[in-house]
Amino acid sequence: MKKYLSLFIITSFVSIIAGAQSKVYTLREVIDIAIENNIVARQADLQVEAAKINYNQARLNRLPAVGGNLNYGLNQGRSIDPFTNAYVNQTINYSSYGINSNVILFNGLTQVQTIKQFQYAKDAAEMDLQQVKDNLTLNVILAYLQVLTNEDLVEVARNQSDVTQKQVERLEILNREGAISPPQLYDMLGQLKENELAVVTNLANLQSARLTLTQVMNIPYDPQIRVEQITMEELLNQSTLSAEEIFNEATRRMAIVKAAELRKKSAEAGIKAVRGELFPTVVLSGNLNTNYSSIATRDIFENTIEIPSNDFVLVNGSKTPVIRNVNNFNTSRIGYFDQLENNIFSNVNVGVRIPIFNSFQARNRIRLAKIELKNVELDQQSVNLQLRQEVDQAYVNMNNAWERYRVSREQVAAYTESFRAAEIRFNAGVGNSIDYLIAKNNLDRANANLVIAQYDFILRKKVLEFYQTNRF
């Protein structure tokens, strides 16, 4: 027994130390951890990165396109010398090099509108990410308040059990002295077990709430996780704005509304971008090239000599041969780099491509873009309609929660006085255990209902504040 008792004491001590060392999370910290670990939020962040790349690429498409070419070949037999363009009948090694560039000067403003289209799409993706974070924040607040609610319910149940325990101890003394009938003690013992069962039930609910909170945060389950209490006095007051005013604020601030508007602008720019395909395209292009041939040669002048020819002239009746000047040349191959330098040629060109007929592809793309715009407009209407319904529902829920909280608070005040009077009579011996237990159970239920009502109101108010200010 001593061994088990020592083990129990050590285990309890370790549990107490572990609980004391557990980090106390604030609501802001819980929200940040949940957003950082949430897979959907991380995927939405990747969508934002992809949208940024598409937008940057649309801007870079305005820059000139530059390319190069490099060719090497071997000709055998009768072929054209790429250096002289003359027919030769020998093996030739040749190569050519070139660089070219082109830039669009005008294409019906397609590039400009495409940039706007992708910019709006990028901004919409950022709003989608914010909406994911907002929805996750709502879930975190709900789980956070559930933990606080169950913590308070555990405290209420323990207080109820303590009050009953004191009555049991008092009745046990009176029963031993024969001052009361035994059924009064047994009634109180039964009430004590019911209170202890309520403690066990609320502790189980608290662990379930903590499990839900850790799951929302995407962290391993910690049964000792603790959250910071919130200041109740600042939150337990009713909102003064109407549902219409809150909706008007929501349409200006909510990320989901902004995303729908940005998608509409993106679709409108998409129509203008496709319509640009109906206009001519003006392109400025140019290239620079050179080449090399293994049989390219050049003649180098050496000297001039005089040699007699077969021709003659008559001088005084005698034949005199004609002397002719002959230039002597030395033939040598042209070097590789000399050829590349000597054979450089370039050209600049301005071209106009005029769309005359392309099977109505451009016009059908315009029609499809207009259909997409109508679909986006319907999505926008749906978002506004859903937002209006959610605001109205949140407003009604908040008012109903306020009424429940107000009535519960008044009920607790009434049952507190009723229990106080019943307890005085019971302790004085002029009241019976049944009246005492009825008054106590009424107060216990009222206290539990008040805890649930006040946190429910806080949650409803937080939701309404989210629609009103887009922050928590």
Describe this structure in words.
With 472 residues, the chain is of the alpha+beta class. The protein has 3 domains: 22-63 and 109-145 and 219-279 and 361-469, Outer membrane efflux proteins (OEP) (Up-down Bundle), CATH 1.20.1600.10; 67-106 and 282-292 and 342-354, Outer membrane efflux proteins (OEP) (Single Sheet); 297-333, no CATH class. 64% of the residues lie in helices and 20% in strands. It is built from 11 helices and 10 strands. The chain has helices at residues 2-21, 27-37, 39-60, 110-176, 182-217, 232-235, 243-253, 255-275, 336-342, 361-428, 433-469; strands at 24-25, 65-75, 78-80, 87-89, 92-106, 226-227, 281-293, 297-315, 318-333, 345-353. A 4-stranded antiparallel beta sheet has the order 2-5-7-10, with helices on one face. It has a two-stranded parallel sheet with strand order 1-6. A hairpin with a 2-residue loop joins β8 and β9 (318-333). It is rod-shaped. The protein starts with a helix and ends with a helix. Mean pLDDT is 87; it is low at 1-20.
Short description:
It is built from 11 helices and 10 strands. The chain is of the alpha+beta class and 472 residues long.
Task: Please name the defining characteristics of this protein.
472 residues; Outer membrane efflux proteins (OEP); alpha+beta; disordered N terminus; single chain
Question: What's the structural blueprint in terms of helices and strands?
Answer:
Elements: H1 2-21, E1 24-25, H2 27-37, H3 39-60, E2 65-75, E3 78-80, E4 87-89, E5 92-106, H4 110-176, H5 182-217, E6 226-227, H6 232-235, H7 243-253, H8 255-275, E7 281-293, E8 297-315, E9 318-333, H9 336-342, E10 345-353, H10 361-428, H11 433-469
